[in-house]
Amino acid sequence: MSTGLDRRTELREFLRSRRARLRPEDVGLSASGRRRVPGLSREELARLAGVSFAYYTRLEQGRGDTMSVEVLDAVARALRLSGDEHAHLFRLARPELHGNRHAVPRRQRLRPGVQRLLDALDGVPAYVCGRRLDVLGWNRLATTVFGDWSRLPPRERNLSRLVFLSPAARDRFNDLEATMLDIVSVLRVEAGTHPEGTELAALIGELTERSNDFRRLWAGHHARRRGHGVQRLRHPVLGELTLSFEAMGLHGDPDQTLVTYHAEPGSTSRKAMSLLTGRLLTTTGAQSSTDLPNNRSHRATVPRPERP
Hints:
The chain is of the alpha+beta class. The chain has 14 helices and 5 strands. β4 and β5 form a beta hairpin. α4 packs across α5, α10 packs across α12 and α11 crosses α12. The longest helix has 18 residues. It is elongated, with a radius of gyration of 22 Å. The protein starts with 6 loop residues before the first helix and ends in a 7-residue tail after the last helix.
């Protein structure tokens, strides 16, 4: 039985990985002579942060509970952490500053109003992700772009399992390496937010055991959430699609994120999305939007593209 992730281990490995990526010349230090470790040494990092070697060593050993906010800020600046990485450091070192980390997460449940919103987004593929990147809800157009998730057992409706373990799902991403890195980075952020989560630890353990790609990327300790960007997809019928995405947190459901996709006006991808939308409209006939069946019925009537 999984017992969750060890926060001290996460903190120690995160700091070591961030220190290792900095070259002495990046921070104005001499790189002469043979170096025993990649990147900066602990002594060099402590000097840059303006703290004693012993004090920084305690932090890198995972004992960050007594570290002041000022010291953590100084270490973050010395390591040149991004905004997401800075927040990740604080979640690992001082979890009490981010609420009760021992609180039992509520059962993941998509509000009916959110599902109605998804259904109302004509011409916009959209879905909602919860903790661990579980897919909680989606609209019909999303099934034509990403595959029919309703055919999967609930446990398998998870973006990380699909991207790392499903050959059919992986084949839909033209920029697979970037997509995998995004997935790993989000899971790393969640590991810092809920290190005690046994389901998250079990998922990470499963992916580590079954996927070489996941093991490789997980070791990098990347921590970030992209709120927007561009996704290059490969549709089995229409070919390549280039879609912009927006990821928005749902107020009142802090662990849930609404993700929408759209194509640039006048682009080939916009024309392809119009074709997909038209195919969906023909399946509903003259039904009004208020007469549409519920989301599960939508999924059952979606014209499924050929499997890649």
